[in-house]
Amino acid sequence: MKTPARRWIACGVVALSLFAGPASALAQSGSSGQARDGANARAAVHGEGVLKKQMSENRYTAGFVTGPPDSTEFAMVQEIATVLASGQETGPHGEVALRVLPMVGTGGVRNIMDLLTLGGADMAIAPVVLVDRLRDARTFGDISHKLVYITLLHTEEFHLLVRSDIKSLADLAGKTVSLGEEDSAADVLGREAFDALGVKINAANLSLDTALDQMKRGQISAALVLSGKPVKPLLALNGGPDNIHLLSIPYSQALQRDFLPSTLDHADYPNLIAGDQAVGTIAIQSALFAYNWPARSPRAELLETFTRSFFSRFSEFLADDHSPKWREVNLAARLPGWERFRPAERWLSLQSMGSDAARSGSPNASNPAGTSSEQRDKLFKEFLRWRERQQGK
Predict the structure, then answer these.
(1) Tens-place pLDDT, residues 192-241
(2) Could you write out the DSSP letters of every residue in 307-345?
(3) Which stretch of DSSP H or E encloses residue 153?
(4) Most exposed of 38, 42, 124, 388 (fewest Cβ within 10 Å)?
(5) Quick one: pLDDT at residue 41?
(6) Over 90: is that where the pLDDT of 191 sits?
(7) Which one-letter DSSP state was computed for residue 54?
(8) Which one, of 269, 374, 288, lies nearest residue 65 by Cα?
(9) Which of 65, 267, 77 is nearest to 154 (CA)?
(10) Contact between residue 320 and residue 280 where contact means Cβ atoms under 8 Å apart
(11) What's the N-to-C CA distance of the chain in angstroms?
């Protein structure tokens, strides 16, 4: 078994080799700007894993790297793009101040590389444990100040789909299991989970559609999907003793440092899980990371516009016609070891100030988050200066 350090060094070597191939496809492909971004990504490696990034000239479009099209995370970014596109005032030529462009990724190491290198990539949804390890291993150099977080998001669950002849995790020993795209979060973290559980599998890297087709043909035994429940393509599957079904992943002590316990039940997958049953599994925490553009640069201002719009309209994402994963999000939750994007921190502090004043009837009420009166005054002055700059544009 590889040690964690060797595993992540090897992961970094494989990740860097990806620059020899095509860049990540965007949700809307074919533009010359995207081609330039791909060329910049392939030319971005200098020295030992140190990445460079050029600033996109498109000051109105925020690029959002996310998971594959069949993932819950990609669907959530599409919801962000749709919600924030509505209700904006347009300029004389129909332009809007903010446009969110989903960028198709794998949800893993490549997402972080894209965020660190592509000029049009401003944000990415990524597993916290994955980003922590890339930082600690310095796979791409010191990224601790190149990335900031806007907010913690939801948990992403492991879904282990198996053929009817697989009754337990031990039955997968020596069998072929698809872990999704190469260097995806399912690939990297799935290998680690199987190793920790002592199950030696024959790993394959297939898309979900291909993996399900090969399972039905008897060519592979299982497929691992890592995405927030419910994963839309899995809702169409029909379970049962003679069909593909979800297998439990035990939350053993070996997994407790980096993974969370979770459960899949009938409400999540009514065609795969009977009403009185549940499938235990593991999960990881995801977060919304952003590239730490220089303060007052056009990209930083665009991210500030995004953050303000996203936070102020967050209640709209809690409606029934949006992903239930939004209801897990606490915008104010902190991510240890990482700095929050300053405009996000400022917005949350101002909201906290307003809540305190509303509860007490006094603008000088104490703040349970620990912000002093002097700090609140400073934040409010910064807000006024920001508003004056916006009105002057």
Answers:
(1) 999 999 999 999 999 999 999 999 999 999 999 999 999 999 999 987 65
(2) HHHHHHTGGGGGSTTS-GGGGG--TT---TTSPBPHHHH
(3) strand 147-162
(4) 388
(5) 41
(6) yes
(7) P
(8) 288
(9) 77
(10) no
(11) 58
* Gap between the Cα atoms of 281 and 324, Å rounded: 19
Half-sphere exposure of 53 (CA within 13 A, CB side): 23
Q: What's the pLDDT score for residue 239?
A: 74
Residue 231: closest CA among 74, 25, 123, 66: 74
* Cβ–Cβ < 8 Å for 49, 140: yes
Retrieve residue 336's tokens. 């240890």
β-pairing verdict for 61-66 and 121-127: parallel
Average pLDDT in the chain: 82
The pTM of this model reads: 0.79
Q: What tokens does 179 get?
A: 């872990």
**360 is written with which tokens?**
């007490």
CA-based nearest residue to 290, from 307, 268, 271: 307
- Helix orientation angle between 185-196 and 128-137, rounded to the nearest 10 degrees: 90
CA distances from 356 to 347, 349, 353, 389 (A): 14, 11, 5, 27
Residues shown for the chain: 393
CA 296, distance to chain mean position in Å, is: 25
SS3 156: strand
What is the pLDDT confidence band of residue 389, given thresholds at 50, 70 and 90? low
Report the alpha-carbon distance of residue 43 to residue 51 in Å, rounded: 9
Residue closest to 317 by CA, chosen among 298, 332, 331: 331
